[in-house]
Amino acid sequence: MLQNTRALRRASAAASARAAVTARRPMTIFGTVCATLLGVTLSVGLASAPAAGAVAPDVAAAFPRTVLGADQFSSIADDTRSAVSTAEAAASVADALSDEVAASGLDVGTTVKVDTSTLEDRIDALDDAEVMPLLLLDTRMEEAAAETRRVVSETGVLRDAFTAAQQKKAAEDAARAAAEQKAAEEHAAQEAAAALAAANTVDGAKATARQLMASTYGWGGDQFSCLESLWTKESGWNYQAYNADGGATGIPQALPGSKMAAAGADWQSNAATQIAWGLGYISSAYGTPCSAWSHSQAMNWY
């Protein structure tokens, strides 16, 4: 026998269960062989027909061995094994794909399972191929081939539908991720705008200055008191302050205001940038805010 049990066939087919269905070569059906052998049958029957119905059932069962040569019989056996192997592989691929589709939970718009039960029956029907009458073997082969083609076709349809469903889900996931990213960026921008607006208030600017003084220069509350007095006199802590007489700009009254670009391109709209530049200027020119305040009191500028 070609195979003893369906379980053994399944074991031999497992290595190629997921090979692409389209890569498998078509089955060769024995149309030409059948026609030739039918002629042989008729010839034999006419030449040796002393009595009608003289061929015993056991002789008919052994027909392939007694009529065909060894090479012909071996070729038929090889083709039968190939047909069975192709059918088993088609069934394995179909079952594996059906399981994958079912596990995915995706809507494929069609049936989620390829029915391979009839193909299994056709494979089982070829178990006794070596002792089967040739004409019956040819019929069984045709049935197995037709069922294999059906399974392969339905597997292809299901594969295409599954691929389309996967692509649709991937596109939906990407769109959702993009929307979430956009929402996160908009939220971050809103928070940044809110923080900037808060920092640009008088209280916000003072809080920023106190924090920068401590973290960058190690200046404490006494120095902040001097700075508070200095910049209250200069600009009232208004980041939009502008002196039309000389052009001094911003909280520290930089002259010209464009000097503050050294601390950041947003110097015209961000109090924190102006404060960072102003503290750097005070540190380099006067050492401390209190020294700058003393100079301002004495000279009316700093």
From TrEMBL:
SUPFAM superfamilies: Lysozyme-like. InterPro entries: Lysozyme-like_dom_sf. This is Phospholipase. It comes from Microbacterium algeriense.
